[in-house]
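Progress narrative, Year 2. Work on Magnesium-transporting ATPase, P-type 1 from Streptomyces sp. R39 advanced from sequence curation to structure prediction during this period.
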Amino acid sequence: MGCDGEAATSLQVLRRLDTGPRGLTEAEAASRLTDLGENTPPRPHTVSWPLRCARALRDPFTAVLLTLGLVSALVASWGTAVVILALVAVSAALRALGEHRADRALAGLRALVAGTATVLRRSGEDAPPRAREVPVAELVPGDVVRLGPGDLVPADVRLLRARGLTVHQAVLTGESAPVAKTAVDVPGSAADGPFQEPYLCFQGSAVASGSATAVVVEPGRRTRFAVAQGAAAPREASAFDRSVHGISWVLIRFMLLTPPLVLMANAALRGRGLETLPFAVAVAVGLTPEMLPVIVTTCLARGAALLARAHRVVVRRLPALHDLGAVDVLCIDKTGTLTQDRPVVDRALGPDGADDPEVLRWAAVGAWWTLQLAELPAPDALDEALLTAAGPVGEEYDGVGAVPFDPERRAATAVVAGTLGTHVLVTKGAAEDVLRRCDLGPAERDRLLALAAGEAEAGLRVLAVATARLPARTRPYTAADEHGLVFRGLVTFRDALAPGAAEALRGLADLGVSIRILTGDHPATAARACRDLGLPTAEAGTATDVPHPADVPRSADVPHPADGPAPEGAGPARESVVVARCTPEDKARIVAGLRAAGHTVGFLGDGVNDIPALRAADVGIAPRTAVDLARETADVVLAEKDLGAIGHAVTAGRHSSANIAAYLRVTLSSNLGNVIAMLCAGLLLPFLPMLPVQVLAQNLCFDAAQLAFAYDRPGPAALRRPTVLRPRAFLRFITGFGMLNAIADLATFGVLALALRGPDALDDQAVFHSAWFTENLLTQALVMFLLRGGTRPGPVGRAAAALAAVGLLLPPGPVGAALGMTGLPPAYHALLAAVLGLYALALRAARARHDRWRPGRS
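Result:
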C-alpha cells in the first residue's frame, strides 16, 4: 500500500483513487480492470522440461564429468565417453523427474482462496449503488467493498466505516489474537509499522467479528501479501549446495592435476609421450565418482517418494531432503504449531486470588446471552472457551439485553433477569477497563490490577468479570449503564496445545535438533506454551534483543559447514529459545544469524510474514494450508502443520544423506588409493600398469556395485545426529584410507614378484594386468563392506560379494580374454588372500580409531 494511502485521511484517499463512498460504476471498474489487470498475486511460472534438465547440470561436479566425457571422446576413448555422458544424462533426467513430480503433487495440495467479494457498484453515474458479489480477481482500486464475519480481506483496503471490527492477521504478522480495527479519519504515527494502523486491512487477513465498509487501495501484485515474496532477499546456497560444491572442487583439483602428472612422469622416465594420454584420462576418470549424480539423485528421490507416500510430505527441491537431514536448529512459530489457534480456560480466580468457580459461571452466562441477544452475534474465541469450560448455562437465567463488545471500550455486557423486579448486568472484558467501572477504592483497584498483571506476566490472557444488580426496566441498556459494578474475579486463558506437539518435540530433541520459537506474540505467552509442553526454555526475549548476524562472531564450538562436525554435545543448546515480537525482517535476520554461526537451519512458516525467513533458511517448510506465496517459496510442503511429520522428514533426510556419505567415503578412498598406485606403477614398470579398456571395465564393475548404496539401510547411529557432507572431513578421511588402499595395491607388486616365477615375470603384461584387476576389485569389495558403517550386510554386502566374484571369475573367462587378461596361478591366489586378510584387519583398526577420535563425523 502506498505511502499516500497510509498517511492521508479517508477523503483524501477517495479523491486520489477518483472514487466515492458509493463505489465505482460498472464502466469505470471494467476500464480499470483492463488497464491494471486482475486482482491476483503473481504465480510461479511452469518450468519446461529442457530447463529442468539444464538446471540439473549446473553443479560443478557434473560439469567436470561432462568435460571428462568430451576429453575422452577427443582421445578416441569412446567407451569411457559414452559411459560418462550416459551417467550424466540419467542423473539429470532423474532429478528433473523428481522435481516435476513434486510440483505436480504440490499443485494437488494447493488450497483454494476466497472466490468472491461483496462490492458496491453502480450501473451509471446517477444510479444508486447496489451490493453484489463479484469474483475477487475483478476488484480494482477505488472499489468499495463490504466485510463481515468470516470474510477474507480481498485486497489492501482503507476502512471508511467499521463497527466492532476485529481481524485475524496472523498470516501477515504472526499475532495469534484478533486485532481491533477502526475507521479513524485522521491517521496517527506508524511507529510500529502499517500492520498496526487501525484503519488499514490487508489481503490475506480474515474478519473475526464486526462489519466494515472499505475502499480498495492496492490490489493484486501491489498488495503487501504479494510484494512480500518479491521483497525477500535472494536465497543463499543451502547446506547441500555448499557441501557438494566443496567436495566437487576438491575432486576437481585432483583430477586437473592427475593427467599432467601422468604425462610428465612417463615422458621423463619412460620416454612415452602422447600415447599415454588415453591412460592419463582413464586414471582421472578412475578418481572420479562417476555414479555420484546418479547415487545422490536416486537416494534423494527414493526418500522423497517414501515421505510423500507414507507421511504426505512433498519435497519440492530434491537437495532439500539432504538439508533436512543436516538440520540442527528448527525455527518455528508458536500458533498453529505448538498450540492451536484457540484459547482454553486455565483458572477462575476470585478477588482474593483463590480459585472460584462462580467467576467462570458468571463469565459464561455473559458470553451466552451476548451471543444470543446481540444485533450482530459474532462468536469470540474467548466466549467459546468459556462456554466449553462452564458447560450449559443458558437455562439458568432469562436474557434481557446485550451491549456487544466494542474494541474502544474493550468490554461486553449481557443483561439477565434476576430476582423479582431486578436485572443483573454481567460485564466482562480487559481488566483495566472493567475495574475502572467497578465501585472500588484506589488501593483495592491497584491490588487487583497487580493480580491481573501477574497472571499476564505468567503468559496467560486475562478476562475480568463484574456484575451489577439494577431495578428492572424496559428501556434498552447501553454502555453508559456499565458503572458501579461489583468485581467478581478473573478468568485466565492459555493457548490450547497442539495434539502430539509434546511428543514431536521430544522426538526432535532425540534427533539432536534444537528449537527456536520465533513468534509475533508476547514473550511470556510463548514461554508459557513451552512450559506447558514440557519444553525447557533457555531464554525468552524480543527480537530487539537479538543482534544482527554481522555483529555475531561465529561460535568456536559450532562448526562451520566447511569444517568437520562438532563432537557429541557441542553446538546449540538443547533448550528452546523464544524470540517474541518478531517482524518478518526479524525472523529472516535471526535465521541468517544462525546460519552464519555454522548451523543448518530449517524454518517452518505459513504466512506472508514468513516468506523472508523461508528463503533465508537452508530448508523452508510450509504446511498445505499456508498462503500460496509461502507454499511456493518453501522447499518442503506438509499435508498438515505437524511437527511429527517434520521428525519423519528429518529421519528420511538423514537416511539418504548417510547413504550418500557412505558412498563418497568408500568410492573416494578406494579411487584415490588406486590412482596413487597406478601413478607409482606407471613409473616402476616398463609398460602401462593397466590398459585403458581394463581401467574402464574395472570402473564399470565398481560403479554397478555402488548402486547398492542408494538402497542401503544405514545403522541407527547415523540417524541420531545431523548428517552434513563436510568437504574437509571427507578430504581427511579419503586421504588416510586412500593411502592405506594404495599400500595394499603396492603390496601386490611383492606378491606378483614372489608368485609369478620371480622378478622376470613382471614382463608378462597380461598376467600383471589380470592380477592387478582382480586385486583391485577384491580390495574395493572389502572397502565397500567395511567402510560403509553398520554391521548388517544388506544390499551393499551383497553387492560387495558380487563384485568380489566378478574379480575372481572375469579374468580367466572369455570376457577377460577379450580385454587382454588371462588366468592366474594358484600361488598368487594364496598370497593374495594373505594380503587381503592383513588389509581387512588394517581397515577395521583404522576405522575404529577414526570413530573414536572423531565421534559423530559424517
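Residues 240-314+650-853 form a domain with the Calcium-transporting ATPase, transmembrane domain fold (CATH 1.20.1110.10). The longest strand covers residues 156-168.
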